[in-house]
Write a structure and sequence with these properties.
Layout lengths: L2 H24 L3 E3 L8 E9 L8 E11 L2 E3 L5 E7 L6 E8 L10 E9 L5 E3 L2 E5 L4 E4 L16 E3 L6 H9 L17 H33 L1
Antiparallel strand pairs: 1-2, 2-7, 3-6, 3-9, 4-7, 5-6, 8-11, 9-10
């Protein structure tokens, strides 16, 4: 085997090894919400891959929420969703998706689970999750990053939140939308109250002047005839 061929074979082996080592980095429950801001309402998507070594289907997912005031799940065929609420405050503590008979996330597949909620006013929000399989196996995704850096074996799904409009601002805009822009002709200007009085006075003076002028003309015409 030539030196060139050996070099190519070594490069291919290194590439394969790198891909195999990188697989666990993305093969975990992942949360995403583009544009999510602190204290804002957002649609959060949880990407759930099937990691069962035996090929058993994922049949249940429970996501712990940061005690959000309100939340709504998206309709997902083949799955039911249940919100766990605090009896006193009404805050939503978690959501559990359960596969119906004959459904689930099979081998070499992943599922997307969406929920709309108001996020807390914080830089980062975490969603500890539990993934359950048909064979009774449970994997908990709740580990924080290790102190020395890198990634935990079962990292907790989390979001980095940006800054944006406050909840009060969102409420104002949702109930008091900006006026629509029309492409039609511009409406006539509306005069101020003071302008109405000035306009009326000018009209009275103008009418009086015309009346005096008319009387003068009548008198002068009568004198000429006489």
């Amino acid at each position: 085997m030539s030196t060139h061929i050996r070099a190519l074979a070594l490069s291919a082996a290194i590439a394969v090894g790198s891909l195999a080592g990188a697989a666990p980095v993305w093969a975990h429950v992942h949360a995403s919400s583009p544009g999510a801001v602190r204290g804002g309402v957002a649609m959060v998507t949880f990407e759930v891959p099937n990691e069962s070594p035996t090929g058993s289907a994922t049949t249940e997912l429970t996501v712990t929420l940061p005690d959000v005031a309100s939340a709504r799940t998206e309709t997902k065929p083949g799955w039911t969703a249940r919100l766990d609420r605090d009896a006193k405050s009404g805050a939503v503590r978690s959501v559990t998706w359960t596969a119906t008979a004959g459904s689930g996330i099979g081998a070499d597949q992943f599922g997307l689970f969406r929920i709309a909620m108001r996020l807390p006013d914080a830089e980062t929000v975490s969603f500890p999750s539990a993934q359950r399989y048909a064979d009774g196996t449970e994997v908990r995704w709740d580990q924080a990053p290790p102190p020395g850096g890198g990634e935990a074996e079962h990292p907790v799904p989390s979001l980095q939140l940006g800054t944006g409009p406050t909840a009060a601002s969102e409420h104002h805009h949702s109930h008091h939308p900006e006026p629509a822009v029309s492409a039609g002709p511009a409406p006539e200007a509306v005069a101020e109250p003071g302008e109405h009085h000035a306009d009326n006075a000018a009209r009275l003076l103008g009418g009086g002047a015309l009346l005096v002028a008319a009387l003068a003309a009548t008198i002068a015409l009568g004198r000429r005839r006489a």
